[in-house]
Amino acid sequence: MIPLAEPLEGLPALARHYKQLGDDVIRTVRQTPHTLSLPATADARRDGLADNRLYVVRGGTLAACCQGRRLLLWDEGDVIIPDHGVTFQADSAVLLAGYDFADLLGEIVATPDLARRWSELLLVQQALLTRCLAAQMPEDGHTGSRFAYFHPGDVILRQGDRADGVYNLFEGEADVLVDEVVVGRVGQGEVLGAIAVLTGAPRGATVRARSRCSAMHIPSDGFHHLIRAKPSLIHGLMTDMARQITELNAQVVAMSSPHTPGSPGPS
User: Fold this and answer.
1) For a surface tag, which of 78, 147, 183, 223 has the fewest beta carbons within 10 Å of its beta carbon?
2) What is the C-alpha separation between 61 and 83, in angstroms, rounded?
């Protein structure tokens, strides 16, 4: 992925993470891809790019454009998920491998870990596009996603606060605390704060960095838009939420259970 703007802090790491996620998803699917050869074109959809397929670049580059601006170039190995708000252009011939969405999603949702990676892939693609668009607009003309960095001990989310968006944690680990008691842990690839954004309730827990953490903050309106545009995101989020809630419940039960004779107390 090659941004077509001034260098953006954190973007190279996020681009590498995106490419790795795409590779993780594609190499697990059994579907045989359809090969599409695009000529140089100002409108890739006119020349055969279909909205019901996911594509992987096998040769050349394909430009993603939004609001009349060329944002970035997808290059070899990048996964492209067509978006109605994005147009695609090619300055020279491009070779793509296309996968049918319906069949692909059937495989993805059948595997919880793959569903989680898929949800993260959607979030990261949205973050890449909005960050590149924001970089080309006046500073007061957008309220898009942004990078955030946390040192050990920093609070990422605070219990009781109003939800203003979600964080996609793409580096590091963090503790989850309820009433200042550690009840769980989250790591790379997790989406933080989605329940509060979806329900409109205050944050139900504090999330505190255990190590240096890098994250992408996506505002609530952008997150809601992404869910409406990509309903398949919900399955991966539900997988994450179910796991987090199960771990939280197990921890609460363990903390509330009386100690058996001879067993060690809490440290």
Assistant:
1) 147
2) 17
* E-assigned strand segments in 108-227: 146-150, 155-157, 165-171, 174-178, 181-186, 191-192, 206-209, 213-219
Q: Which CATH number fits domain 29-110: 2.30.110.10, 3.40.190.10, 3.40.309.10, 2.60.120.10?
A: 2.60.120.10
Tell me if residue 125 falls in helix, strand or coil: helix
Please report, for the chain, the start and end positions of each structural domain, with discontinuous segments joined by +: 29-110, 139-256
C-alpha neighbours within 13 Å on the C-beta side of residue 24: 17
CB 36 within 8 A of CB 90: no
d(CA 157, CA 208): 7
pTM above 0.90, yes or no: no
Scanning 27-143, the segments in alpha helix (DSSP H) are 101-109, 112-135
Token pair listed for 32? 């045989």
Beta-bridge partners for 90: 41
> What is the dihedral sign for C-alpha 127, 12, 81, 244?
negative
* Rounded CA separation 121/26 (Å): 11
DSSP conformation class of 259: P
- How confident is the model over 87-130, as pLDDT tens digits? 999 999 999 999 998 898 888 888 888 888 888 888 888 777 77
Query: Residue 226: which residues within 8 A CB-CB, separation 6 or more?
Result: 122, 123, 126, 218, 233
Taking a C-beta distance cutoff of 8 angstroms, is the pair 69, 16 a contact? no
Residue 83 vs residues 10, 102, 170, 222, 242: alpha-carbon distances, Å: 24, 16, 23, 14, 28
